[in-house]
Design goal:
The chain is α/β, with parallel strands linked by helices. It is built from 12 helices and 11 strands. The chain has 2 domains: 53 residues, no CATH class; 296 residues, no CATH class. The two termini are 15 Å apart. InterPro entries: Mss51-like_C, Znf_MYND.
Amino acid sequence: MDCAGKGRGTRCMGSARRRCGRCGAVAYCSVSHQMSHWNEHKEECERLEKQMKQVGVLNDFPFTFSQEATSQVGVGKAREPKDDSWNLPSDLCPCHGPISPISECLSSWLDYYEWRCIPLHSPVALLLHWPLTIYHAAQIACVRNLIVETHKLCIHYLGPEKELLQLAAFGELLALFPGVQVHIEFIGPAIPQHRDGEKIVLCSCAHCMDADCICKSSSENLSRVATTGKSTSMTIQLRSGFYHDHYRDLAEVFFPPDLFPHLVIAPNAGVAAYPSWLPTIELIKKMNVTAIFSDYCEEACHLAACCIKSGTGCSLSLPQSLLKVRNDIFRAECLVMEIMLGPFAHLLLPQDWNFRLFQIVPLRIAKVMGLGSKLVIC
């Protein structure tokens, strides 16, 4: 950890080992740097203190797998593209439909692992936090009634990057939304121009590596229809560019009225760090559509909320609350301060429009699918 008073006139006297006695979230190399930084730090100290008190709660994580165990299935290794399957045996991944209907109270990783009959030492959460975040966001946004009425769910997913190499993981939405036609528009500047307009159809969950597993059988899709009584489909459309630059053209040219988004999601957005989000947020506000943004830690959520309030005039009506959708794998390697260990989401609701903000933490993507991922993200 760097000295919080670094660059304040005098050079640092050594490593930053002197922590703030109140919040414990920042450290200094010397008493003089701590004193010179106090006028700035005093405004955030109480807030950071409250965040640090939640570290014990945020470390309540059910998984039992370790870096050594996950390395056996290729975690962190760079491999050439292979296919769109899990690089795992069938007993460690959700490669076929669930054996029982989804629970109404599915609210945590433990609930999910039990429902999908996956052992806690399976590393699938490294990738499944994306579809699980969408599922949880849909619950927060209260779109269930719309889904029941139309059997359709349209989501605009903003700023995808790492997801582009792991799109097969989103096939899990077939199990999470049975009998629903799910369509996701991935829109962002990280999408290469040559992939602009590309359409991906996912007909099943990502397959396992076992040659004789039922997931390789065509009867798997038929059994899903028989169980739900309705056909489930999953399509993904890629759009290159900023949402605020691209959306009006999309709405007029590409999207029929029934594909207007039920929900807008922007995972790990970095709202406070990137000014380009402000025109996007302004557009979402004018659209009057529910939007859920996530950020990298609780403090980033606070800064994002401040940016939204100053940029749009929307104040928050509810305090941050903890939501049990998270992924804090390799937290010691990826995160700078202990407060960023948070495995829970933090929800903030403005008073006068449907904007919602919650937190999911940064993670290190592992090669648990045969998709040629070369991603190491901190």
